[in-house]
Specification:
The complex is a heterodimer of chains A (504) and B (67).
Chain A (H helix, E strand, L loop, with lengths): L5 H20 L11 H4 L8 H12 L2 H14 L6 H26 L4 H9 L2 H32 L6 H17 L2 H29 L2 H6 L3 H4 L6 H15 L3 H8 L4 H10 L1 H19 L9 H7 L4 H9 L2 H39 L5 H25 L2 H15 L3 H4 L10 H21 L6 E6 L2 E6 H22 L17
Antiparallel strand pairs in A: 1-2
Helix pairs in contact in A: 1-8, 1-9, 1-18, 3-9, 3-13, 3-14, 3-18, 4-7, 4-15, 4-18, 5-12, 5-14, 5-15, 6-7, 7-18, 7-19, 7-20, 8-19, 9-15, 9-18, 13-18, 15-17, 18-19, 20-23, 22-23
Chain B lengths: L14 H8 L16 H23 L6
The chains are: A mainly alpha (504), B mainly alpha (67).
Chain lengths: 504, 67
């Protein structure tokens, strides 16, 4: 652990250099004027089926996912597996909803979900709420990508914050220059090495451990399947997370960068390939249990420093030769760069469109708009970096947990807004505020350690995902408020969209 | 007469993955195992494939002209 693994480090550094070069070259890919926000921040809305598949795959299945999901399964067992049903049900939902989002955004030049809310409900305040929620939910998510990177650097014997700072500055530089083209191009390489790593892991490791039967035999029986009192928590975590996934600004950016509705529809049938990957990665948690890496003295320092997040890196070091360990760590680290880039671009788009242009400089030129976004992407990344360097890691984890609760509160304005104009803008805003408050309170009651809230209904206790409970309150306020405001004839604003704009 | 159903009805198929994965009692068991893997796990893995297949079927059944 304290020894620097030279072979692994060389392989790692070579791959890192390769993607850095790609990141800068990307500015010349499908050359266009990057001083236009839709070119810098959405890649000119020209990504076809295959590029979008890599982009969204690289975007949604992040480095933190690859470290944290097996860590959760390693620690909590079956409950941690909710990531699987979550990715099963998110795509049918996206299949139905997101083509409408793409169509209306394409027609009106919307770059963010908040742009759509602005146009649909004629409310800068509601759009601001959506934008701020998006930025708040995204920042800790970027910070957590750094955690993923930190763990694999540590596994190769690299200590200290400096390598992390360098990696992030490099990332910031090419994101600034190339915009969304950089992560799109890098995602192709990243996903290729991730697939190789995971396929090797699920074939080689169980073989070494004596088959899957042996792997599962190492899991304590009470963790192998769910207890009946965990059912509602499991299902509500899966459902809430599935509904929230595409409300995150970075997912929305991936959707809006597609070249057509068909690209999104086809991708919802193709992206489950990544779900297989995720499920396989989750099982790595059990493989780490079965290989007893936690008991090996050479990994004790890693476990004490990084906790269960060290389970998978330790497993890789244990079973793979050095060069392949370096390869797989590069997969995880590059897996941090792609989403971090897209997230910072998405947050920058939100800031530029829905804060700066809306409230600071309504008359700003396209060039100025694009410059502000580039600078904002730098600020967002530096903020995330500072957060990880100066604050304990657990704050980032807790904030990311809260981020999931918060982002789901934008569902009524965004998703229901795609289908109906009956909800009143002020009622939606009130529902959002209530949902944010209730969700945060529920998480606070758990000491911000988890997002499952034990709801008391009479004498029965219904543990469920706080985000979903908060959403129910949110919808109630939005619905009742809309009826009341409608009855009182309060101005509902002018809808800038027409039914034909939604493409069906 | 050829049937002329509403093509939107195909979308109803998309409810199946939700039912199959969100109703936990369907799969919260160790047996039957498959190649050493408990039912809980291979059942949910199976739904990845079924879910993708269902989405593909609905995609082709509701194909849009320019898509």
């Amino acid at each position: 652990m304290n020894q620097v693994d030279v072979v692994a480090l060389v392989v790692f550094a070579l791959l890192f250099a390769l993607v850095t070069a790609l990141g800068f070259v990307a500015s010349r890919w499908r050359k266009a004027d990057l001083d236009q926000l839709h070119e810098w921040g959405l890649g000119g809305r020209r990504f076809g089926t295959l590029v979008t598949w890599f982009l969204l795959g690289g975007d949604l299945y992040t480095a933190y996912t690859f470290v944290a999901v097996p860590a959760l399964v390693y620690g909590a067992g079956a409950l941690g597996f909710f990531a699987l049903p979550y990715t099963v049900i998110t795509y049918p939902f996206v299949f139905v909803v997101m083509p409408r989002m793409w169509s209306v955004s394409h027609k009106h030049g919307y770059i963010t979900a908040a742009d759509f809310v602005r146009g649909r409900f004629d409310s800068g305040a509601l759009a601001l709420a959506v934008a701020v929620t998006g930025i708040l939910a995204t920042m800790p998510y970027i910070a957590l990508q750094l955690v993923g990177m930190q763990v694999v650097l540590g596994a190769m014997g690299i200590q200290g914050d400096l390598p992390l700072v360098i990696a992030f500055l490099v990332l910031a530089a090419y994101t600034y220059q190339s915009g969304l083209r950089a992560p799109a191009l890098i995602a192709v390489v990243k996903d290729a090495i991730i697939y190789v790593t995971v396929i090797a892991a699920v074939v080689v490791i169980p073989a070494k451990l004596g088959g899957y039967g042996k792997v599962f035999a190492a899991v304590p029986p009470q963790k192998l399947i769910l207890a009946p009192q965990q059912f509602t928590a499991y299902a509500s975590l899966a459902l809430g997370s599935a509904l929230a996934l595409f409300l995150y600004p970075h997912s929305m950016t991936g959707v809006l960068a597609a070249s057509g509705r068909g690209v999104i529809r086809r991708n919802t049938a193709m992206l489950p390939a990544y779900s297989f990957l995720l499920g396989a990665i989750a099982l790595l948690g059990y493989m780490a249990l079965a290989s007893r890496v936690d008991a090996a003295p050479q990994y004790a320092a890693g476990f004490s420093r990084y906790g269960t997040n060290f389970a998978v890196p330790a497993l890789f070091l244990d079973v793979f030769p050095s060069w392949f360990a370096g390869f797989s760590f590069a997969a995880i680290a590059i897996g941090a760069l792609v989403p971090a880039a897209i997230m910072s671009i998405a947050a920058a788009n939100l800031f530029t469109r829905n804060v700066y242009k809306e409230f600071v400089r309504p008359a700003c030129t396209p060039r100025e708009e694009s410059t502000v976004a580039k600078l904002a992407s730098l600020v967002v990344k530096l903020g995330a970096l500072a957060f990880i360097v100066f604050f304990p890691q657990k704050y980032a984890i807790q904030l990311q947990l809260l981020g999931g609760v918060w982002i789901l509160q934008t569902l009524p304005a965004i998703v229901l807004g795609l289908y109906t104009r009956r909800l009143h803008r002020w009622a939606l805003l009130a529902g959002w505020a209530t949902g944010m408050g209730v969700g945060t309170w529920m998480a606070a009651m758990q000491g911000f350690k988890g997002s499952v809230y034990p709801l008391h209904l009479g004498s029965t206790i219904l543990p469920g995902y706080a985000a979903l409970y908060a959403l129910i309150v949110n919808l109630g306020v939005a619905g009742l408020g809309s009826v009341a405001l409608g009855a009182a004839n309060v101005d509902a604003g002018k809808d800038a969209t027409s039914p034909a704009d939604y493409g069906e | 007469m050829k049937r002329k159903r509403n093509p939107k009805l195909w979308y109803a198929l998309l409810i199946l993955p939700f039912v199959g994965t969100l109703w936990v009692p369907f799969y919260d068991s160790v047996e039957p195992r498959l190649g050493g893997i408990p039912y809980f796990y291979w059942y949910q893995f199976g739904w990845i494939g079924i879910g993708a297949a269902i989405t593909a079927v609905v995609y082709f059944a509701t194909r849009e002209p320019d898509a």
